[in-house]
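Progress narrative, work stream C.
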Amino acid sequence: MRPPARGTARLLYGAGLAAALTLPAAVAPAHAAPHPRTPAVVPAADGAKGQELPGMPTVLDSRQGEVSCTPASKATAEKQDWSRQRLDLDRLHRHTTGRGTTVALISTGVDPGAAGLGGRVTASGDAADDCVGLGTFLAGIVAGDGGGSPRLAGAAPAAKILGLRGTDRTGVPQPGLVTAAVRAATKAEADVIAVAVALPRRDAALTRAVADARKAGAVVLAAATPETPARGSSDEIPARTYWPAGEPGVLSVADMLPAGSRPDRALPTGDVDLAAPGAGVVSGGPRGKGHYLGGGVAVATAYAAGAAAAVRAAHPDASGEEAARRLTTTAYPADIPQLDAYAAVTTVRAGSGAPAAGPAPAAEPVAVRDTSGTDRATGRAVLFVLLGSAGVFSLLWAGFALSRARSRGWRPAGAGTAGKP
């Protein structure tokens, strides 16, 4: 009867070996499955509480008659905000600082003597009187050098700013002023034209001005919507197209939160080309050397404009359309593509040569992948392997013990050895 016992043992060993070889393969799909390419989610650099800085308004209250301009901030930022980390500006500046480019910024005006802008601002007349402060704040996001805090520099800290007024003194957009500003920017041969306001109705004169600007080779960007209303609910406002963001060839820009989503009360609109940081962003103002916190669609537009200046400086032979295409094709994929300034500058496009300057480029945008789903699957697979392995070894040990017991004729171990010398 021993041969059948040996056959049983061999069968048990064979089954155990097969199981041991098969179980690790069950783990492979969890590791081999490709990670989804998701945008990085970067928390605010200053923690949950945030930095104690005054807010930068987008419009002043004129109901009281006499308008009081935004006062100087007495506070200074101590840390880099999340937006600059999200756009990887420290690394971007090793490739380009936007030197040699001019960004026309159409907002509430820009103070030519503002701190952190290093005398690189050209503004005259009403455009040099920034009562609201928003235009100067945006200029710092586009081209500020950070003053004594280089990590608070803008996207293109060596670019020049052409400050233009597209609003009245309180910050309310005016179609005629926006049109005149676009034409002035085109005449000045600005490389990038950023319209940080949005108009509810299309204007024929503005349409022609934008078309002429694009024909002249400028990258034209515009706020996708007006700023979120301070009162009431945006849910009651139907989705619509705003201008000049809706014009052909204009890059429409929306604001996003650190998690990559749009603010809950953001105004609805149609197609948006890019989303950029637009909450809790640090920059300076027209008075004093202090900092403010700002947000909204205008802030996101300023970041996109700074990235466009960086692209044009790094790729001077690229046309305006090619530069704009770089911003959109290298963006993080999402419901609204999310601006990746570093990738827009460094990615080598098919059929192109090496970048104009800097070390070897990254072929893909750097992304922090969300592996939580894969990690959970891996954890379950590992647990399955451990339990399965324990069962296999138990099975092998049982087979070994059964074989030894049969070979002794079922006598206890050591039995029959007494009396032997």
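Work stream C, second folded protein:
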Amino acid sequence: MDIPTVSRRTLIAGTAAAGLASATAAGGTAASAAPPARPNILVIVTDDQPKNTSWATPKTVGWLGDQGVTFTRGYAATPLCAPSRSSILTGRYAHNHGVRGNQHSENLDHSGTVQRYLHDAGYRTGLYGKFLNGWDVHDNPPHFDEYALLAPITYNDGTYNVNGTVKTIAGYSTTVIKNQAVKFIERSATDTRPWFLYVAPKAPHGPNTADTPYENTPVPAWKGRPSVPEADRSDKPGFIKNATGTLADGKAIRTAQLRTLLSVDDAVEAIRQKLVALGQLDNTLVIFIGDNGYTWADHGWTKKSVPYTPSIQVPFYLSWPAGGLDTGADDGRLAANIDIAPTIFDATGVTPGPQHVLDGHSLLGSHRRTRLLTEFWKHGTGAGGPNTWSSYVDATRQYTEYYQLHTDANGIPTGTGAVLFREYYDLVNDPHQLTNLLYQATPAQEQALGIPALAAQLAADRTSSGATAP
């Protein structure tokens, strides 16, 4: 069920009107009505967390799902860590922010990030955990006032840059990050500025090392799904035909991911309790998302970076009681990581400069996209792995093209751009993407599926920006 959402502008207008009515009834003046304080912003980003993992995060779901909004069609526009995180922080597709792969984090323009704009608007900004792939731990993250940046990303006894000092902190990294984040929130008891907090644990990224209390925790049985491992892949691209993942592989990955997520759930609960203790829960906008999904041997693939649903769909929650996001409803709109920055800007009343065009849209309003672009670039010319691809996704269908294209050492696409392979799936009747309707299709059949129009739209979307972006 889609829900009516409340933007900060609507919230302020309603609050001001109520204040004016109250003041008038009491014989006062409109000047006595004060607008509500700007909300705190909490963004929690997990690493490689697919959907269907809620068993391991009951406290998170109980807070943000049952007392917030669940986006049932939440996507990562690029199912890879650094591009996705750059989209979260900028509200832009990877083809616009330039971080097309994990090797290209240096291409991010930090002047266009959420943390820069909120910092300049008077917010206290904090980062705890993973920032961007390949980030040198000795480099301070721009526009963050306080931080404990983990690099390289490890589960135990990690190296952190803590406010400019590099040190080893003993212990399980999810717990270390939790403790640091809670202390950041505690400091708001004496620092009255609103805050922006970005919390990014390693979990459940491989090697999926669970904390000691959870390393042998039994998890619910799982028999796979029709796409695991899909014995007949003759209609799939070559790298999927050659994939070797089995149901046993999928079960093992799932078990390990769930066990690491149990610690994430503990961390989220500790943060919630601190917000309650400080009286800040009501006016804190909380956004929880996985940076990309992950396949549990779907189509024989045991990774990410592919256009199939388990790779591009992610858990996605919002909660903001003061903004009306506390109903426990499901929102079925096509929502993506590119919508996070616009949502934050809408809630805080901050407007980015014209040079930083947003591709996403605020989720606090009623905007409803008809389609979404997902995209991925192959880095280098090595063998194996998916080719560069882009995909048109809407509520009922998905059309994907693979290209003769790769990124060079600077992250710039190079190659002929020729289309190497195409896929089309009926997501209503074939949600597990078993039958590629373009495999051996005739021109007449392609015409009946609307492929020429979809191909033209996808070509436009791949270079779109701002108002023209899907």
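The first strand starts at residue 40 and ends at 46. No further action is required on this item.
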